[in-house]
Amino acid sequence: MHSILRIHPNFCTVIACLTVAVLLGNCRSLRNEVDPSQLGLASPKLVVSGYLSPQDTTLAIKVTRSNTVVGDSIELLQIGNNVTDATVTLSEGGRSVTLLYNNRHSTNDSAAQFYYSASARLLPILAGRTYTLAVVTTSGQRATSTCTIPAPVSPTTIKFDSITESQGRSSVRRYFVRASWQDPPSQTNYYQVAGYFRYTTQCSTCQVDQIGNFPLSSDDDNRGLFSDAGVDGTIIPSGREYMTSSSLTGNQPSNFYSQYKTASVTVNLMSIDQAYYQFQMAVIRQRRVRNNPFAEPVLIPSNINGGLGCFAGYNNSTLTLRFK
Predict the structure, then answer these.
(1) Which residues contact 287 (CB under 8 A, 6 or more apart)?
(2) Are both 164 and 292 inside the same structural domain?
(3) What angle do CA 83, 88, 94 make, to 5 degrees?
(4) Is 297 helix (H, G, I), strand (E, B) or coil?
(5) DSSP E strands: which ranges in 9-110?
(6) Is the pLDDT of residue 290 over 90?
(7) What is the pTM of this model?
(8) Does one domain contain both 73 and 104?
(9) How many structural domains does the chain have?
(10) How far is CA 115 from CA 60, 61, 103, 316, in A?
(11) Is the pLDDT of residue 109 over 90?
(12) Does residue 198 fall inside a structural domain?
């Protein structure tokens, strides 16, 4: 007769706990404190950002310096890294303009603007032209870049629709529009869709009508960014661009038109260059995964020679749908 070895359940529990403790101890040993002086930290670089458009009345370029981060957290709002002593020049052909540093304060300090600017009348921005940016600091740092302004592409239609969604025990009717446009054939194009919903409402207890002006909200993962890859030369529709919503009462939606005295939606179709598209797409991907420790890092592209950032061009066209 064979003997049977019986293991007490408490003994198994002890073994399991010891195993977990050993594994956790090994994981902690993987983290070692390192003297920052041994990391060979890179010196700060110029960070340049600016977007040119024929529709803008002001030429604006922001110049800062990069910050090397060592530690467990990153301070999102860095203070004191604005570059104020640079010579910033925009040129095209034989024309050029020097942008002056502008410290425009507002009543809200967080909304203060720190950038170099000049009137667009001094250097008109035209489709098809290539513009050169040069930034030189008093310490000798230099950054340059170029961008070519795309031709405009106009939206052709705006379609109004709605969808019912459940939110807990209640339901809401969400109103949105879709824009569409004809993509120019045989060329690579990039787009971004944005816009505003504007309205006025009558108020019996108010001295004046109530005015609303809210940006559209995209439902696609790319925040309104498109390329014509695979759909070149076709009619391209946008995603849902949400305007507003209303609660359902007794499973019956309130009438959209009865809520407003006047209402309209304006869709902006920006024809953007490749640098604009690639930079914004990378930023969007980075924001998606920044809280995921297992995600692959997203490298942010730069078209700034001698620095970091994005200098790009776009051309904006608009179409407005008036509801009443």
Answers:
(1) none
(2) yes
(3) 175
(4) coil
(5) 46-52, 58-65, 87-92, 95-104
(6) no
(7) 0.79
(8) yes
(9) 2
(10) 6, 6, 7, 22
(11) no
(12) yes
